[in-house]
Specification:
alpha+beta, 4-stranded antiparallel beta sheet, 5 helices
Length: about 180
């Protein structure tokens, strides 16, 4: 009895089918990877949100007195949000967004920008800032992706944010 192997044509057909399946799967795997990073980022923001709520309960009148985004040349008198929140958010890796391809985390110690820090740096009173935030806590973003780490076809400036009431969601600039 003679054993019959695959012919060259049969092998080419099988390889063509496998390559066709692979080309269909690769884009969906990339989308799944981007989605997983986005979910990881929003989970980090929710963890920071728990710390934010604890901070707000302890310091009834003020928001954390910190700069908007840490800079390499900040002097010792400048306080970063990661430093202020370290007793409430003790895992430093929570401040890293996995989609941070600009490497803010490596350079600045956080992938996120602290919005009230901008107002504080312009001389606004932290008590007044807290009052404004408390008026509409679900509306005001307090910590947001430093860059558009999560662009989509609908939103090229795709960012996620932690809001003053502690929830994390997509950041919409227009609202």
């Amino acid at each position: 009895m003679k054993q019959r192997g695959f012919t060259l044509i049969e092998m080419l057909v099988v390889m063509a089918i496998i390559s066709l399946i692979a080309t269909m799967l690769v884009p969906s795997l990339g989308r799944a990877r981007r989605y997983a990073k986005r979910v990881s980022c929003i989970t980090n923001l929710k963890a920071i949100g728990i710390g934010w709520v604890m901070y707000m309960e302890e310091y009834i009148k003020d928001v954390p007195p910190a700069v908007s985004l840490p800079l390499k040349d900040d002097g010792p008198e400048v306080i970063h949000i990661t430093e202020v929140m370290k007793d409430y958010v003790n895992a430093h890796e929570v401040w890293r967004c996995l989609s941070d391809d600009v490497e803010y985390f490596v350079d600045k110690g956080t992938s996120y920008e602290y919005y009230p820090g901008w107002f504080i740096s312009t001389g606004s009173n932290p008590e007044q800032i807290r009052y404004r935030l408390d008026e509409h806590p679900a509306k005001w973003a307090v910590i947001v992706d430093a860059e558009a780490f999560h662009p989509t076809s609908n939103d090229l400036e795709g960012r996620q944010a932690l809001y003053h009431d502690g929830h994390a969601d997509w950041f919409l600039k227009n609202e």
